[in-house]
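Memo to structure team: turn this sequence into structure tokens by end of day. - J.P.
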Amino acid sequence: MDAYGHVNNAIFLRYLEEARIDFLSLRGKESKQGSVVARHEIDYKRQLVHRPTPVDIELWVTDIKAASFTVTYEVKDAEAVYVRAATVVVPFDFETQRPRRLTAQEREFLQKYRDDADEEAVAA
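Reply from structure team:
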């Protein structure tokens, strides 16, 4: 919470990170391969004031390319959407310290969560 009594913008990045890590952990872990964030885009729709009840974070995949994919999120509750965001994620080989292409297994996993309907809305 910041001086104005609402959740600070930087905290939203942490919320998105936690949701993304939970999501990507569903596919299992590959030893020296993972992913890194290339870009975040966040639209703040309403202020979120501190409260005891949690908010929901829904996420889905809106774009899959050869060497990146985009995860789109909404931070919301039953009354409102507080944040709409997107993160471009790049597969990464930590042994060579270089980006890499998505594997067939990763692409198959991501396809299950793909929703192209929102791709244009996020880019706008």
